[in-house]
Protein backbone atom coordinates (compact mmCIF):
# COMPACT_ATOMS: atom_id res chain seq x y z
CA UNK A 1 0.00 0.00 0.00
CA UNK A 2 2.94 2.39 0.43
CA UNK A 3 3.19 3.10 -3.30
CA UNK A 4 -0.55 3.61 -3.37
CA UNK A 5 -0.29 6.03 -0.44
CA UNK A 6 2.38 7.94 -2.32
CA UNK A 7 0.25 8.03 -5.51
CA UNK A 8 -2.88 9.14 -3.64
CA UNK A 9 -0.91 11.76 -1.71
CA UNK A 10 0.54 13.21 -4.89
CA UNK A 11 -2.82 13.22 -6.66
CA UNK A 12 -4.39 14.95 -3.66
CA UNK A 13 -2.14 17.90 -4.45
CA UNK A 14 -2.36 17.93 -8.25
CA UNK A 15 -3.47 15.91 -11.25
CA UNK A 16 -0.65 14.09 -12.97
CA UNK A 17 0.53 11.24 -15.16
CA UNK A 18 2.02 7.98 -13.78
CA UNK A 19 5.46 8.93 -15.14
CA UNK A 20 5.32 12.14 -13.06
CA UNK A 21 4.69 9.96 -9.99
CA UNK A 22 7.73 7.83 -10.82
CA UNK A 23 9.90 10.96 -10.96
CA UNK A 24 8.56 12.08 -7.58
CA UNK A 25 9.12 8.67 -6.02
CA UNK A 26 12.69 8.69 -7.23
CA UNK A 27 13.12 12.22 -5.87
CA UNK A 28 11.62 11.49 -2.44
CA UNK A 29 12.63 7.88 -1.93
CA UNK A 30 15.85 7.71 -3.94
CA UNK A 31 17.94 7.45 -0.78
CA UNK A 32 16.03 4.35 0.32
CA UNK A 33 15.98 0.77 -0.87
CA UNK A 34 12.69 1.38 -2.69
CA UNK A 35 12.73 -0.51 -5.97
CA UNK A 36 9.97 1.02 -8.05
CA UNK A 37 9.54 0.16 -11.70
CA UNK A 38 7.24 1.77 -14.23
CA UNK A 39 5.30 -1.48 -14.35
CA UNK A 40 4.72 -1.33 -10.59
CA UNK A 41 3.48 2.23 -10.83
CA UNK A 42 1.12 1.55 -13.75
CA UNK A 43 -0.18 -1.57 -12.02
CA UNK A 44 -0.96 0.43 -8.86
CA UNK A 45 -2.68 3.12 -10.93
CA UNK A 46 -4.92 0.41 -12.40
CA UNK A 47 -5.70 -0.98 -8.93
CA UNK A 48 -6.57 2.48 -7.61
CA UNK A 49 -8.69 3.19 -10.70
CA UNK A 50 -10.65 -0.07 -10.30
CA UNK A 51 -11.27 0.73 -6.62
CA UNK A 52 -12.63 4.16 -7.58
CA UNK A 53 -9.92 5.98 -5.63
CA UNK A 54 -8.62 7.85 -8.67
CA UNK A 55 -10.14 8.86 -11.99
CA UNK A 56 -8.95 9.63 -15.48
CA UNK A 57 -8.99 13.37 -16.08
CA UNK A 58 -7.52 13.83 -19.55
CA UNK A 59 -6.02 11.72 -22.31
CA UNK A 60 -3.41 13.56 -24.33
CA UNK A 61 -2.67 12.19 -27.79
CA UNK A 62 0.51 13.10 -29.64
CA UNK A 63 2.02 11.88 -32.89
CA UNK A 64 4.41 8.94 -32.63
CA UNK A 65 3.89 8.62 -28.87
CA UNK A 66 1.53 6.55 -26.73
CA UNK A 67 -1.46 8.32 -25.21
CA UNK A 68 -0.68 10.13 -21.98
CA UNK A 69 -3.41 9.88 -19.32
CA UNK A 70 -3.65 12.38 -16.50
CA UNK A 71 -5.30 11.22 -13.26
CA UNK A 72 -6.89 12.89 -10.25
CA UNK A 73 -8.01 11.68 -6.84
CA UNK A 74 -11.65 11.08 -5.91
CA UNK A 75 -13.31 11.79 -2.55
CA UNK A 76 -13.22 8.07 -1.86
CA UNK A 77 -9.48 8.25 -2.64
CA UNK A 78 -8.96 11.09 -0.15
CA UNK A 79 -10.61 8.98 2.55
CA UNK A 80 -8.52 5.95 1.56
CA UNK A 81 -5.36 8.07 1.72
CA UNK A 82 -6.05 9.03 5.33
CA UNK A 83 -6.96 5.45 6.25
CA UNK A 84 -3.78 4.19 4.54
CA UNK A 85 -1.57 6.62 6.43
CA UNK A 86 -3.08 5.61 9.77
CA UNK A 87 -2.85 1.93 8.81
CA UNK A 88 0.86 2.30 8.00
CA UNK A 89 1.47 3.37 11.61
CA UNK A 90 -0.91 0.76 13.05
CA UNK A 91 0.81 -2.04 11.10
CA UNK A 92 4.35 -0.77 11.76
CA UNK A 93 7.03 -3.31 10.88
CA UNK A 94 10.05 -1.04 10.46
CA UNK A 95 10.86 2.61 9.89
CA UNK A 96 11.01 2.16 6.11
CA UNK A 97 7.40 0.97 6.11
CA UNK A 98 6.42 4.52 7.13
CA UNK A 99 8.20 6.45 4.37
CA UNK A 100 5.21 6.99 2.04
CA UNK A 101 3.03 7.95 5.00
CA UNK A 102 5.63 10.39 6.33
CA UNK A 103 5.62 12.54 3.19
CA UNK A 104 1.84 12.86 3.56
CA UNK A 105 1.52 13.77 7.25
CA UNK A 106 -0.01 17.11 6.30
CA UNK A 107 -3.12 15.21 5.19
CA UNK A 108 -3.99 13.62 8.56
CA UNK A 109 -4.63 14.48 12.21
CA UNK A 110 -1.19 14.85 13.78
CA UNK A 111 -2.56 14.22 17.28
CA UNK A 112 -3.76 10.80 16.13
CA UNK A 113 -0.36 10.13 14.49
CA UNK A 114 1.37 11.07 17.77
CA UNK A 115 -0.83 8.59 19.62
CA UNK A 116 -0.02 5.86 17.07
CA UNK A 117 3.73 6.56 17.39
CA UNK A 118 3.46 6.33 21.18
CA UNK A 119 1.75 2.96 20.75
CA UNK A 120 4.57 1.75 18.47
CA UNK A 121 7.12 2.88 21.04
CA UNK A 122 5.34 0.95 23.82
CA UNK A 123 5.38 -2.22 21.70
CA UNK A 124 9.05 -1.79 20.79
CA UNK A 125 9.99 -1.23 24.45
CA UNK A 126 8.33 -4.56 25.29
CA UNK A 127 10.20 -6.31 22.46
CA UNK A 128 13.53 -4.86 23.46
CA UNK A 129 13.04 -5.94 27.08
CA UNK A 130 12.32 -9.46 25.88
CA UNK A 131 15.45 -9.78 23.71
CA UNK A 132 17.84 -7.87 25.92
CA UNK A 133 21.30 -9.33 25.13
CA UNK A 134 22.19 -10.19 28.72
CA UNK A 135 19.22 -12.51 29.35
CA UNK A 136 20.48 -15.95 30.49
CA UNK A 137 18.31 -18.37 28.44
CA UNK A 138 21.08 -18.88 25.84
CA UNK A 139 23.32 -20.65 28.37
CA UNK A 140 21.90 -24.07 27.47
CA UNK A 141 23.32 -24.07 23.92
CA UNK A 142 26.76 -25.26 22.82
CA UNK A 143 29.47 -22.59 22.60
CA UNK A 144 29.49 -22.04 18.78
CA UNK A 145 25.73 -21.75 18.56
CA UNK A 146 25.60 -19.66 21.72
CA UNK A 147 27.99 -17.10 20.22
CA UNK A 148 25.93 -16.92 17.03
CA UNK A 149 22.68 -16.51 18.96
CA UNK A 150 24.23 -13.77 21.09
CA UNK A 151 25.32 -11.92 17.96
CA UNK A 152 21.81 -12.23 16.49
CA UNK A 153 20.22 -10.98 19.71
CA UNK A 154 22.71 -8.13 19.83
CA UNK A 155 21.81 -7.10 16.28
CA UNK A 156 18.06 -7.29 16.98
CA UNK A 157 18.49 -5.30 20.19
CA UNK A 158 20.46 -2.51 18.53
CA UNK A 159 18.13 -2.40 15.51
CA UNK A 160 15.09 -1.99 17.74
CA UNK A 161 16.94 0.57 19.88
CA UNK A 162 17.76 2.53 16.72
CA UNK A 163 14.09 2.45 15.66
CA UNK A 164 13.04 3.61 19.14
CA UNK A 165 15.48 6.54 19.03
CA UNK A 166 14.30 7.57 15.56
CA UNK A 167 10.60 7.21 16.46
CA UNK A 168 11.13 9.40 19.52
CA UNK A 169 12.53 12.08 17.20
CA UNK A 170 9.56 11.62 14.88
CA UNK A 171 7.15 11.87 17.83
CA UNK A 172 8.75 15.15 18.92
CA UNK A 173 8.54 16.45 15.32
CA UNK A 174 4.87 15.47 14.97
CA UNK A 175 3.93 16.90 18.37
CA UNK A 176 5.63 20.23 17.62
CA UNK A 177 3.87 20.43 14.23
CA UNK A 178 0.53 19.60 15.88
CA UNK A 179 0.98 22.48 18.34
CA UNK A 180 1.51 24.92 15.47
CA UNK A 181 -1.82 24.04 13.86
From TrEMBL:
It holds the Pfam family PadR. Residues 7-83 form the Transcription regulator PadR N-terminal domain. It comes from the Bacteria. This is Transcription regulator PadR N-terminal domain-containing protein. It comes from Paenibacillus xylanivorans.
Amino acid sequence: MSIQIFILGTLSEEQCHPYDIKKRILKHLDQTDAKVTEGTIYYNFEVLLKKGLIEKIEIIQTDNRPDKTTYGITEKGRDALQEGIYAAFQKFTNVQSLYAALVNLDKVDLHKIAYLIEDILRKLEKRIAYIKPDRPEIEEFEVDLKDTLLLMKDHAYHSIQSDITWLQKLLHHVQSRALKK
